[in-house]
Amino acid sequence: MSCLQSWPEPIVRVQSLSESGIKSIPERYIKPLLHRPSLKTDNFDDDFKDNPDHPRINIPVIDLQDMFSSNKALRDETLSHISDACREWGFFQVVNHGVNHELMRSAREVWRQFFKLPVEVKQEYANSPTTYEGYGSRLGVQKGAKLDWSDYFFLHYMPQSLRNQSKWPALPSSCRELVAEYGEQVVKLCGELMKMLSVNLGLGEDQLQDAFGGENIGACLRVNFYPKCPQPDLTLGLSSHSDPGGLTLLLPDENVAGLQVRRSGNNWVTVKPIPNAFIVNIGDQIQVLSNAIYKSVEHRVIVNSEQERVSLALFYNPKSDLLIQPIKELVTKNRPALYPPMTFDEYRVFIRTRGPCGKAQVDSLKSST
Ligand code: OGA
Ligand code: NI
After folding, report:
1. Distance 241 CA to ligand 1 centre (A)
2. Which end of the chain offers a freer environment for a tag, N or C, measured as fewer CB atoms within 10 Å?
3. Domain residues of the chain, as ranges?
4. Per the entry, which co-factors are needed (predicted)?
5. Rounded (to 5) percent helix, strand, coil in the chain
């Protein structure tokens, strides 16, 4: 993997560009016309509130409260809402999920503070494409590629053998402790969601988790920082992609929208974040394991000139050296296996080399039968 050893061009921090006060953005951030956001169709703009031609759409919101009830009918009803959301959207928000709200707020704020530190401090964590761990400003190593308007911090939480707290920010001083606590609670919630998805797929409660490697799953955190952008209509904070891993739990900024989910064609729904909710989405590995009963969904992030935005994406992934392929109960004569076996280690080289490219990778795997 020699191509992944170093960045092809000097790294420019988007935050530094933004703070330099430029009025027009450099060429390398200007997206081709077809990929630019159409900011004026923002679907939850208040102007559209009561206009039947522009119904206010949002991804489904699911209250997990009833999943913890002893009443089976209530649990089944929630499971059925989740099932609909997985099939129709691949994206939903969850509330009453059991993760401490104060912890969610503190985790987001500590990262906001991290990005406010002087560039020299953050620079100590500068990452390389071999592992992506640390402070980064691009995904993909193709020379001359168009870049996204964001910086990020990427770290491994699980497995324990990859968790190296000395690579996590030492400042703000509560950062490491908060990340550890946040990781623990969110990973636990992912485990619960995995059971719900497994049952909804008609499998045993633990079957999906077992296919991920049981206890040995991977979990990584990517904290995204989207600085203010003087020309938000020309670029994206994060280009369209599906998440390569299993399940993603996103803690969005409570004040600033930005995440868009592709509905059909070039229709994008801007997600309206609900207070204290997580945004859950299906990644490519669950598409493969479920033999495409559940599909990962393309999403992207738009930026704006008024406010910066912070989001925390926790990626819950299969053990990285396990072969991932459609679960045998989901392969039938009428529905043969759509994907060949591949490890997640092999799979993620694609996005790490080419950067975000819609659903190009998982679609290209599809057997041609
Ligand atoms: C991601 C992602 C969305 C956001 O990190 O993969 O899609 O709103 N983030 O930051
Ligand atoms: Ni994503």
Report:
1. 9
2. C
3. 2-367
4. L-ascorbate; Fe(2+)
5. 35, 20, 45
Cα separation of 354 and 350, whole Å?
A: 6
CB proximity list for 259: less than 8 A, separation 6 or greater: 250, 252, 270, 271, 273, 279, 299, 300, 301, 311
Tell me, yes or no, if the pTM score tops 0.70: yes
Which class does domain 2-367 fall in?
mainly beta
pLDDT above 90: residue 309: yes
Q: How far apart are alpha carbons 218 and 320 in whole angstroms? A: 7
Q: What is the largest CA-CA distance in the chain?
A: 61
Q: Give the separation between CA 251 and CA 105, rounded to whole angstroms.
A: 9
Ligand 1 centre distance from Cα of residue 243 (Å): 9
R_g (Cα) of the chain, nearest Å: 20
Sign (positive or negative) of CA dihedral 337, 340, 341, 342: negative
Q: What is the pLDDT of residue 265?
A: 81
Measured in whole angstroms, the distance separating CA 231 from the mean position of its chain's CA atoms is 24
Tokens of 168: 């996590």
Nearest ligand 1 atom, CA 300:
7
For ligand 1, atom 6, the nearest C-alpha belongs to: 243
As for ligand 1, residues whose beta carbon falls within 6 Å of it are: 222, 224, 238, 243, 250, 252, 258-259, 299, 301, 311, 313
Q: Look at the block and give the residue holding tokens 């630019």.
A: 36
